[in-house]
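FIELD: query
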Amino acid sequence: MAPSVAQIQEADTPATFPAKSIPLVGETAPKVRRQIDEEGGHTTAKYPHYLPVWNHGEKYPPLEPFTHADHGKDADPEFKDLLGQGTRIQKLTPSIGSEVTGVQLSKLNAAGKDQLALLIAQRKVVAFRDQDFADLPIKEALEFGGYFGRHHIHPASGNPDGYPEIHLVHRYGSSSELEAIYRDRNTTVTWHSDVSYEAQPPGTTFLYILDSPDVGGDTVFANQVEAYNRLSPVLQERLHGLKAVHSGFEQVDFSKSRGGVVRREPVAHEHPLVRTHPVTGEKALFVNSGFTRSIVGLKKEESDALLTFLLNHVARGLDYQARVRWAPGTVVVWDNRVTSHSALLDWTTGERRHLARITPQAERPFETPYAAESPKV
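FIELD: result
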């Protein structure tokens, strides 16, 4: 049968987890890699203080459970504090994605933030244009994001110096870089829901642009609520009660293989195959090719076949996907609980693609009983 989390951890998890430590006097200083050094001390980055630093001496203990309160539950569905006079909102597709202009997220009061959480739960992903996030002190950007949940610190990524809560996406799109990728793959599309291997994966998530190519480097999103809705009632009912293993071991192993950082020991957790959103009550497929490894209780061949079908079903659903094009000042906010996404590495002009992610964690995924839809008259 496909392995359970207990079996994976029994085989692979170290017995102890290191706490954050400071080297003692006389110890060798930890290796610290800085992007600015790799660019010769001079950079063309618009926001050099956001360039990644990989500090091998930073270690964090396992994440502890916490109680998450989703502010979308208390929000005014009229969005009066979020979408006021002069605001323009336009849907990108019928089922997922909107674009908003005329509102400054950093200026929202508590009611506006609550309504933001509700809007994101409803539309799944929203691109806010002409924002000042990148120009704020990083501490203020984090304070804004912290309203929506406990900050997640990524176990294997770089961050702005002194701000481990910021996850950075940084890449040059040179032709040689893409050639290296295409030696082993046909596409750069990698559908995933961020760090779904955590016991409490992220919910309302923020990604803001620092540098981007003039054309290319878009991000695509899939609506996993609609992916669930498209399944037959028979299959929907069968998926209820099943759990899947989400693993971060492979991500950490990849970082190790490239000499990267490991800031926290890897984990794997079991989550329902179908999760329920705490605000909308919608059910969504909670599987992604980035981190979902197997379905608990099924034999390997059975697990592989069902997962392959579900992942392909999400990937080919162009009629429940949205594509967001980046522009200066853009902040994209999505609900990581009910979407998956992928960056598109499709530019070869050598321009920098540099983004910062704020990743508030949410509740532990839960499932509500299957309920068949009433027949339409």
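FIELD: remark
The chain has nine helices and 17 strands.
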